[in-house]
Amino acid sequence: MFSQISNLLKLRIGVVMMLTALVAMVITPGPRPSALEILVLAFAVLISAGSAGAFNQYFEVDIDRRVARTCNRPFVTGYFQRGPMWLGIILLLLVAGVGSAALVLNLPAAFYIFLGAFFYAIVYTVWLKRRSWTNIVIGGASGSFAVLAGAAAVDPGIGPVAIMLALVLFLWTPSHFWSLAIAKSKDYQRTGIPMLPVIIGNQRCAQVVLINTLMLVAISIMPFFSGMGWIYLAAAAVGGGFFIYHNILMVLDPSPRVAMKSFFASLVQLVLLLIGAVVDVLLLG
């Protein structure tokens, strides 16, 4: 049962969003948040992202049943039956997340959490995914809003480091997802989803990913010049270099095997960056 709920809510994505929000909370200058505020931020981001993930699966059953990677999702298999009840549950999850943030944190943090869910569920899933290759670029802003929510929970004014970290998440999402899309391009061709590799081919898409990652890494280093220390800089440089290396390999060989390595390299880069930011603040801040 838990595995089905985890699948439905896309908890792996939600956990990434939750961690980015918590890291933004830690590195934002201001009064230290209480244990309750930390727990509420984690809950609000996780449950709101989960509601958006569940809506994504509710809306995309026709696509999911035709793709090997998604054909085991609970709405496809019939483990959960689509219907008005599930739309109500999804809405209640969103209300619980945004409402708890508004009550315990502040309205700006709650608003950013709402925007994160809205961009994934409506902008990405409903408006763009089936229509435009920009789907993951614009829809990927949902990750940026998680960063802004964490920062706003401490300081609604949003400082430069939080803004730069939000830009990092904005640029990270296309490099991360397009690497996966290159590996799974045949699935997207079969379903008619206009992901970038389907539009321009795997080779050119790999080149676009490399350019995007170079911008991502450049911006990820910029917080060092706005107050972050050498630990953060080292983590950003090492993780960024690792991701760029795998992007270069993907340009040379845009095969599914190499593209999946680039996909996993994006996760390594993000994890190193987040850990470096927290350790830097705790040890040097």
Largest sheet data? none
Structural class: mainly alpha
Poorly predicted regions:
none
Helicity level: over 70%
Radius of gyration: 19 Å
> Number of domains in the coordinates?
1
H-E order: HHHHHHHHHHHHHHH
Identify the overall geometry: flat
Span between N and C termini?
43 Å
Number of strands: 0
Strand content is under 5%
Average pLDDT value?
93
- Count of runs of 4 or more consecutive helical residues: 15
Describe this structure in words.
With 285 residues, the chain is mainly alpha-helical. It has one domain (2-284). The protein has helices at 2-9, 11-27, 35-59, 61-64, 74-77, 84-104, 107-128, 135-139, 141-154, 160-183, 185-191, 196-200, 202-221, 230-252, 256-284. Helix 2 (11-27) packs antiparallel against helix 3 (35-59), helix 6 runs antiparallel to helix 7 and helix 10 (160-183) runs antiparallel to helix 13 (202-221). The radius of gyration is 19 Å and the shape is flat.
